[in-house]
Each structure stands twice: as structure tokens, then as C-alpha cells.
Design brief:
The complex is a heterodimer of chains A (about 200) and B (about 90).
Chain A lengths: L25 E12 L2 E3 L10 E11 L4 E8 L10 E11 L5 E5 L11 E7 L7 E8 L8 E11 L5 E11 L7 E6 L4 E11 L1
Antiparallel strand pairs in A: 1-12, 2-11, 3-8, 3-12, 4-7, 4-11, 5-6, 5-10, 8-9, 9-10
Chain B lengths: L2 E4 L2 E4 L2 H16 L1 H18 L13 H11 L8 H5 L8
Antiparallel strand pairs in B: 1-2
The chains are: A mainly beta (about 200), B mainly alpha (about 90).
């Protein structure tokens, strides 16, 4: 291969890297794009033992129904049922657009040994520019020894008056030693009108 | 067509999934008043907390602050619908 010199303009002639060059360990596995969709799910095609860590990026998820929550649940039967028992914890930080108030503290969006869908963001609105974005990390879902820890951070425009920005921190575990092999994201009511969820595997 | 996305692929919902969804959405709608009251109380409590230091025993609470804090405590009185809750105007701290 001919030597390619970098000239601060382009490295487009590089078509392959030698094996000794590290290319990172975060691999994009799948991209799901909502279009008036009831839910966005990933199953054992991607959620399996190939990676120890899975990361989900939520990008501009916009609901069809006003004032809904963005939620998720795990499955241990490849998506036939989304009902894994979870214990979770939550705190939020928010600030009004007109600076009239702010808040930080523990909030009652947690679950205690519940199979309910876990809220990742609340009061998501349907104004044209409303959306929730954020990420969630799931650790070692294929383990048959340990519970399934996850952590999530989202940011959202609260659909209240005055509008507020709210960062919601949710973490917890699926209290199962069965392998988690599917995950579903949906709004608490109505469709996901638009938005993208990207799934990455991390070694 | 009602559909879900699995691994990036659009799949039509089954009749059972559509029925289950209708039940979920009815349950969600029934809880609207409770959720709006919870949101109202959260904001009210935060505003009360932000003036708690003025009500300590070594401080004399001004009448305007006392009135403001009482208005915050009373803000949930008489509310019976989601629309009423969403129309609440918070008192202004002077």
C-alpha cells in the first residue's frame, strides 16, 4: 500500500487500518427509527453474549401524545413478554425556562420489585420541538449468575407551564439471574411519533 | 397501520397487542389527574423548600413571606380536574 500523507484536508484514501491500530471497542449494532411506532425493541439478535455492555442512545424521541413518559422494560423470553422484575432508584434536576423555579432531589419514579415499565423521562410534550434525548447502559445481560444492572440519563423539555429542562437519572437492576435477551422502549401512552434509538455493543 | 419496530424493522401489531394497548392507554388516561397533582405538589414543595430558611426559629418571618408560603400550601385546595390543576398560577415571591 502506498504511503498516504495527511495534509489536514482529507484521509479519504485510507481504506484499511493495520491490525495494530486500535479502532475502539464500541460497535454500532442497530439503529431503530420511529415513525408513528408503538414501540422500539431489540431482541436476542443483538442482546446476547457477544458483548458485556450494551449502550442505547435516545435521539430526539418525540411522542404522539402530550405529557407522556418515555419508558422501557426487559424480556427474558426474546420479547414474548416484557415483564422482568426491577428495583430502581431515581433523582432529577430541573429548571424553568423563565427562571421561576428549580428543583433537585429524589423523585418517586422508582420501582420496588415491580414488573412495570420503568420511566426514563416524564412529561414529554408534543410541541414541534419537544423531545427526549439521552442514553442507557445495560451491563452483562447474558449473565445467568448476576442481576442485570442498568444506568440511564435523559434530558427532556417538561411539557408544563412554564416549560422546564429536566435531567432524569434512573438506575437499578432487573432482579433476575436469567439472561435478559430483549428490551422494549415505548411511550406510556400513544406512539413514538419520531426519534432514533441506536444500540451499541461495548467490549 | 399500527406497528412496532424490532431490530430496526417495522412489524404490524397483532390483534392481542392492539387490545392490550387500548387497556394500557385507558389506565394511563384514568391516572391523569393524579399525575398532574403529583407534578403540582413537586413544584410547590420545591418552592416551599427554597424559603424554609426564612422560617427558622431565629428569624422573624415577614408577613409577605408568610402569605406567600401559605398560598403555596393552599394551592392544591379545591382542585378536582386535570385542567384545573394545569391552570394553577403560582403565587409570586416578593
Amino acid at each position: 500500500m502506498a504511503l498516504v500523507k495527511l495534509n489536514n484536508q482529507s484521509i479519504s484514501e485510507v481504506t484499511a487500518l493495520p491490525a495494530v491500530v486500535p479502532i475502539g471497542s464500541q460497535v454500532l449494532l442497530s439503529t431503530a427509527t420511529a415513525s408513528a411506532s408503538a414501540s422500539l425493541s431489540f431482541n436476542s439478535t443483538y442482546i446476547n453474549s457477544d458483548y458485556l455492555v450494551y449502550k442505547f442512545e435516545f435521539i430526539n424521541c418525540h411522542p404522539a401524545t402530550d405529557n407522556v413518559s418515555f419508558t422501557f422494560n426487559f424480556s427474558i423470553d426474546n420479547g414474548s413478554n416484557y415483564n422482568v422484575v426491577k428495583t430502581t432508584t431515581s433523582f432529577v434536576s430541573n429548571h424553568d425556562e423563565n427562571d421561576s423555579g428549580n428543583n433537585f432531589g429524589y423523585q418517586d419514579f422508582d420501582l420496588a420489585q415491580s414488573t412495570d415499565y420503568q420511566i426514563l423521562a416524564r412529561l414529554v410534550g408534543t410541541e414541534a420541538d419537544d423531545n427526549v434525548s439521552g442514553s442507557m447502559t445495560l451491563f452483562n445481560p447474558s449473565s445467568t449468575t448476576y442481576v442485570k444492572h442498568f444506568t440511564s440519563t435523559t434530558n427532556n423539555v417538561l411539557s408544563i407551564s412554564p416549560p422546564s429542562t429536566e435531567e432524569m437519572f434512573i438506575s437499578g437492576y432487573g432482579n433476575t439471574t436469567s439472561a435478559v435477551n430483549a428490551i422494549q422502549f415505548k411511550m406510556s401512552s400513544g406512539n413514538i411519533d419520531a426519534g432514533v434509538i441506536k444500540l451499541y455493543g461495548i467490549n | 397501520m399500527e406497528h412496532k419496530i424490532i431490530n430496526g424493522i417495522s412489524i404490524p401489531l397483532t390483534e392481542a397487542e392492539i387490545s392490550a394497548r387500548l387497556v394500557d392507554e385507558a389506565t394511563w388516561s384514568e391516572g391523569a389527574f393524579g399525575r398532574s397533582m403529583a407534578n403540582l405538589r413537586q413544584k410547590r414543595n420545591a418552592l416551599l423548600s427554597s424559603t424554609d430558611y426564612l422560617a427558622l426559629s431565629d428569624n422573624t418571618l415577614s408577613s409577605t413571606t408568610a402569605t406567600y408560603r401559605q398560598a403555596l400550601r393552599d394551592i392544591t385546595e379545591g382542585l378536582t380536574t386535570k385542567d384545573e390543576v394545569e391552570a394553577v398560577v403560582f403565587p409570586t415571591k416578593e
